[in-house]
Each structure stands twice: as C-alpha cells, then as structure tokens.
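pls ignore typos typing on phone
iron/sulfur cluster + seq
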Amino acid sequence: MVEFIIDDPAYGDDEKLAVAVGLSITFRQALVKARPSREALEAAKESVWGALLISPCPPNLPCFNDVEKAVDHSEIFSTPVGYEGPTPAATRRRVSTFNKHYMKPWRWAREGEKPEVGHRLLPLMACLFRELKTLDAVPIVVSDVRLQPNTTPPPDYMVVPTSHAVSEVAEIVDVYLPPLKAGALALGILTGGYKAGPVVALVKTRDYATQRLIEMGGYAVVLDEPGDPCNLFRSRVAGYSYEKRLYTVNPALCDKCGDCLKTACPAIAPSHAGAPQILPTCTGCGACALVCTRGAIQ
Ligand code: SF4
Ligand code: SF4
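k done
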C-alpha cells in the first residue's frame, strides 16, 4: 500500500524524487515514477524514513514486483527501493506523527565548503532566526545552500525526540540534500502533513515546486530575487538582497544578551567591557543588527 504516487509531468525526474523524499521524511509511503540521476538517488538514500518506491527500478537498488514487500523492505531498511509491479491505488491510512527532532544528525547545515557563502547569507539567517524563534511552533527549514558552522566539532544529535533549542543561526537549516532541490523537498514535507510549524524553503531560483509550496501554505526565500527576507511571514515569499553597511555596538543600549553572537559571525566577539565588539573584519552585512532586539547594533 502506498499513500502517494508522484507522476506529475510538470516536474523533472529529480524533482519528483525530491518530493518523494520530503514525503518520506514525514514517514509517508510514496511511489515515484521517474528516472532520477545517480547523484539524486545517492542523496535520497540519506533521508528515507517512510517508504520510497521508484518505478522503473533504478540500477543498484533492490527491485520488487509486490508493492507490500517493496514498502516493507524500504521501511525496515530505511532505503529507497525499485518497484515494477502494477500501479497500486494510493490510499491514505496514517496520520503522520513526525517530529523533526527524529532527523539524522546531518540535517544540520554545517561544514560549509565556502565560508564566504555562509557569511554572505548571515543577514538572511538572522531574519529567519528572529522570526522563527518568536513562534510557538517547530519550524522546518529546507535549504539549497549550506552555512558555515560556528562550533567544532558539530553536536552529535541523537535520533530520538528532543527539545533541542537552536543556539546559533546556522542551526536553523534542518534539511540540506543536494542535488535534491529545497522547494520540492519542502513541498513533500508539507504534503506529508508536517503541522508542527511553518515549512520554509531557501531556494536559489523560484521553480514550479516552490510555487506549489507557497500555494499550499509553505514559505520560500528566493536567493536570486531582490527584497527583504524579513518580510517572509507577511507575504509567504521573499527575495533576498545583500547590502553592505558599517556597524558598531552602542554599549549604552546593549543588555549583554548575547543574541548577536549566535549569528556565528567571525567578526563579532565577546569583550571584557561587556558589550560585544565588532572587529575590523566586519563586512557590514547587518545580520547582527537584525538579531539585536535592543537596537544596540547600529
Ligand atoms: S544582541 Fe544586542 S543587546 Fe544582545 S549582546 Fe548583542 S548588541 Fe548587546
Ligand atoms: S559583525 Fe559585521 S559582518 Fe558580522 S554580522 Fe555584524 S554586520 Fe555582519
């Protein structure tokens, strides 16, 4: 028995697979009719939680003609499988009990290969951090980009329910599975019934899946469109523009809460004087100022 059959010709084969992976992340059972690329298949192997069936059978995956056996094998071994039996009728039979804290440790977007990429995105992440941390919800953020970590080694999160609180901006991103696109993954997660909070996709370009995500009630930040990412929760979709300014900390306004340090920016540091200090390496991205609720970074 499968709950979703993904066969919409409006999507490319890798996009269809990404939607199916998003569904699987929410413990759904999906059959995708596609011939995904080898790279996309490799990424899909990282995040199978429900059942993920692919038809026709890709090479190097177990292949089944019986849908029940295919679903069982995929769920038991947390792996995508091939399926070449008759197309089953899709039935809804489960309520998703997905908790995002079940996700495997590599969900955290860390170890950026290009530090400057993570740094350039700090203002965007600061906006999301500020917007999301005020919500009485558990948002899930799927990204096409990876951020620079602050802590080494990264925390070893267990695959158990936790109430882990985000402590730095880079931790906001939950899912990063290139080349699977964030818009399609997020669409799958939303369709799979994730209701604990907003589903947010950080995408490089707006595509069909991202548009569907927004129509269904998800949120998107489009990295190649101009705009203010802090508008996200007002309009459900926001562009992102990078603007350089010069910043300093006003010690008279600073209450030493430390939120600005959670941006993980290498150019802002604690100081003996109490208020954080902005170093000469500051690029003026403004992320710390967006995070500071006291207006102390100007
Ligand atoms: S976020 Fe603002 S108030 Fe808090 S430590 Fe940084 S500068 Fe001070
Ligand atoms: S210290 Fe400078 S570079 Fe770092 S977040 Fe603040 S404005 Fe951006």
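The radius of gyration is 21 Å. The pocket of iron/sulfur cluster (ligand 2) is lined by residues 122, 247, 263, 265, 267-268, 278, 282-288 (CB under 6 Å). more later
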